[in-house]
Amino acid sequence: MRLVMFGAPGAGKGTQAKRLSEHLGVPHISTGDMLRENIEQRTELGRAARSYMDRGELVPDDIINGMVRVRLEESDCEHGFILDGYPRTIPQAEALDRMLGEMGIELDAVFDLEVPDEEIVRRLSGRRVCRQCGASYHVVFNPPKQPGVCDVCGGQLYQREDDTEEAVLNRIAVYKRKTKPLLEYYTRRGLMRTVDGTGSIDEIFGRLLGLLPGGK
């Protein structure tokens, strides 16, 4: 099973991608993680990416595409994969099509987790992170035992700048603007599956399973 996961920040696509990965027995490929690993391992592509990041520039598509190609050719992707965070643009989607075509395989489905803006704001604006150990909490869903204090190390909890309501709304707007062409691209190809991303993790996972090709 070869899948792509879309969803705005806070929609829960990473959580659901991991669960699908375990259920299907295929790797969950997060391009953010992949980029960090290449940089840490000082691969040729990682060094190239780092040179752009050090200058505060976006990593070019050809480098990202190259990393994805190398990852998809690894043996654990033989029976499928779940892409999370890629593609982000139409040129990347077209590059993915070419890669898969050269490998003699195709995507099975593309999922888009839809969550109302107000719910995403509620999820992200309530997040608090420990300054000392990085542990994450939520004032409603996963509060610390003592307000403002980390359960793990006793460090101070704070709200990240990009988790304020204004910042979250801006992140949602940017995501929608950049992703709309991709959703249309995959809709035209008959691959798009829109999923209600509200409710419990189990409820959302059940909806995803019900939309898998072949009912897997």
Q: Please, could you describe this protein's structure?
A:
This protein is of the alpha/beta class and 216 residues long. It has one domain: P-loop containing nucleotide triphosphate hydrolases (Rossmann fold, 3-Layer(aba) Sandwich), CATH 3.40.50. Helix content is 48%, strand content 15%. It is built from eight helices and eight strands. The strands form two sheets. A five-stranded parallel beta sheet has the order 2-3-1-4-8, with helices on both faces. A three-stranded antiparallel beta sheet has the order 6-5-7. Helix 1 packs across helix 8, helix 4 packs parallel to helix 5 and helix 6 crosses helix 7. It starts with a strand and ends in a 5-residue tail after the last helix. The model has no long low-confidence stretch (mean pLDDT 92).
Short key terms for the protein model shown above:
nucleotide-binding; nucleotide biosynthesis; five-stranded parallel sheet; three-stranded antiparallel sheet; zinc; 8 helices; ATP-binding; 216 residues; alpha/beta
